[in-house]
Design brief:
Elements: H1 4-16, H2 19-26, H3 30-44, E1 49-52, E2 55-58, H4 60-86, E3 93-98, H5 104-117, E4 122-127, H6 130-138, E5 144-148, E6 159-174, H7 187-192, E7 195-198, H8 199-202, E8 215-218, H9 221-228, E9 233-237, H10 238-246, E10 250-252, E11 262-271, H11 278-294
Parallel strand pairs: 3-4, 3-5, 7-8
Antiparallel strand pairs: 1-2, 5-11, 6-9, 6-10, 6-11
Helix pairs in contact: 1-2, 1-3, 1-4, 2-3, 5-11
Family: Belongs to the LysR transcriptional regulatory family.
GO molecular function, one term: DNA-binding transcription factor activity
Domain HTH lysR-type: 1-59
Length: 296
């Protein structure tokens, strides 16, 4: 059987390539590190390092063992965090990330619900793209977030997610542009005409991608709507395009390329440290209720 101290010593020596460097990193004597690794080797029945000069060279067995040892260390760290959280004072301040295409009516209802049900809780609503927002969630700079989800949601850090529903995107062109008068928007149009792509969609790593040979990335949906009056096309969420349609600036273009609107899944993301937080538990239930109203 191994101990956590043995695993820490093994991982440190592997990373630092030296018993002395591992000792300095763990604030232990070189001799202590060597004894921990030696006792681990004895329990395993094979060597983990060979010594060449002052360097500790990992054996083939150590190479295979290392990623599993790192995983155990990470899981232990998360266990410590959750254990400490269970005895800590409940959080009363949350920084929340949200994608700009997420229904604002949904967020408004959450804000009002928090004010009514958790009067001591304060929330900062921070617009973020999926890529940067998940990195902030990983670094605990965000507490939870509403972002687009990949089909097989996979993250490189421990987190939970809760599927909420789909945001519909349509193909839009200028109401008086040459594309608006065409009987059909064809593949050739998608490839050869200018495509305006939101920076947010580009960084979301989802189904909204660059299809045209001439793609322009724009940060603002409002600017895209203005640009579409003269040229090009764009895939926009129906909600964000609604104002431009009402003002007669743009129109939704039916096309044989899309039999229906593109449906992009959105989820609530939160780190495992908050899974037992009473506010997060209540939030998940409220999101379930609201999702039936605002998502298809």
């Amino acid at each position: 059987m191994h101990t956590l101290e043995q695993l820490r010593a093994f991982v440190a020596v592997y990373d630092k390539h030296s018993f002395s460097a591992a000792g300095r990193y763990l604030s232990k004597d070189r001799t202590t590190i060597r004894e921990l690794v030696k006792s681990y080797e004895d329990s395993l029945g094979y060597e983990l390092f060979s010594i060449t000069g002052r360097k500790a060279i990992a054996t083939p067995c150590a190479e295979k063992l290392y990623p599993h040892a790192v995983l155990v260390m990470r899981q232990n760290s998360k266990l410590d965090e959750i254990s400490q959280f269970l005895f800590s004072t409940p959080k009363t301040h949350f920084d929340v990330g949200y994608d700009v295409d997420f229904p604002v009516e949904f967020l408004e209802k959450i804000e009002l619900w928090v004010t009514r049900s958790f009067p001591l809780v304060t929330i900062n609503w921070l617009a973020r793209n999926r890529e940067g927002g998940l990195e902030e969630l990983k670094n605990t700079e965000l507490d939870f977030a509403f972002f687009p989800a990949k089909g097989n949601i996979s993250l490189d850090f421990p987190a939970h997610f809760q599927h909420l529903g789909y945001v519909n995107y349509g193909l839009y062109v200028g109401a008086n542009s040459k594309l608006a008068s065409k009987p059909d928007f064809e593949l050739e149009d998608a490839q050869l005409e200018i495509q305006y792509l939101t920076e947010n969609s580009l960084r979301a790593e989802g189904v909204i991608k660059a299809f045209s040979y001439s793609t322009r990335v724009v940060s603002s949906n409002d600017l895209i709507i203005r640009l579409l009056q003269k040229q090009g096309w764009a895939l926009l969420s129906n909600r964000s395009a609604e104002s431009g349609v009402k003002l007669g600036m743009i129109k939704k273009k039916e096309t044989s390329l899309l039999c229906n609107d593109l449906k992009v899944p959105f989820s609530l993301f939160y780190t495992i440290e908050l899974q037992c937080d009473p506010f997060i538990q209540a939030l998940r239930n409220e999101c379930d209720v609201l999702a039936k109203r605002y998502f298809q």
